[in-house]
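Dear colleague,

Thank you for sharing your sequence with our group. We've completed the structure prediction you requested, and as agreed, I am returning the results in plain text so they can be pasted directly into your records. Please verify that the sequence below matches your submission; if there's any discrepancy, let me know and we will rerun it promptly.
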Amino acid sequence: MCGRYATTRSAGDLSAMFESYDATGGRLAVDYNVAPTDPVPLVQVDAAGQRVLSLGRWGFVPAWSRSTAGAARMINARAETVATSRAFAGAFARRRCLLPADGWYEWVRNPGGKQAYYLTPQDGSTVAFAGIWSVWDGPGGPLLTCGIVTTAALGDLADVHDRMPLLVPPERWGAWLGPAERPGDLLAPPSLEWLAGLEARPVGPAVGDVRNDGPSLVERVAVSSPPGRDDRPGEGMLF
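Please find the predicted structure tokens below.
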């Protein structure tokens, strides 16, 4: 998975969708071009067991880290190692979250250059990325940070990239957020049937510049051919 996605639902919509209370303080903004270290919505469970919609920074910073300097390189945690990694294991065991998104972007390199694709539900619904969170105590006070768990791409999504976010269908939200005797069981990807509800929509190159934003970024553009398994992800992408 690369380092860009879109999240445009309001705090009210997300609170209702995830049956959570809103703790974003009116600071949640529409963002069609989320980039590393940007503020993003996430759903956690508080000490009382209630779901809460929070605003955190995308780029995981372990509590023991001396600084936030490496956060942009820790936006994603691989499902294959998240349970054993020194940086992520504690959060995976005890501090899992969901990151709501409209969809995410990938780049495919082809003979004509790099083509951007927007991977999103065909019905316009919201997806939930499996995530982990941490609070880092810095000079400016506590900082909530998060990362997205990624896994091997399946089905048609593998034509665009060999990785994808671990997507959590609604019926699994409670299990991902709740206590688990065997957290590793939560890392199973959704079914191919569920993934078939996603589309890989070709979009324009503007999304490649983090300064660009707005609904035009997710508008479909014409391409000469769809991505194939002989194509390769674009260079310089984070996944």
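Summary note from our side: Residues 76 and 148 are 5 Å apart (CA to CA).

Kind regards,
the structure core
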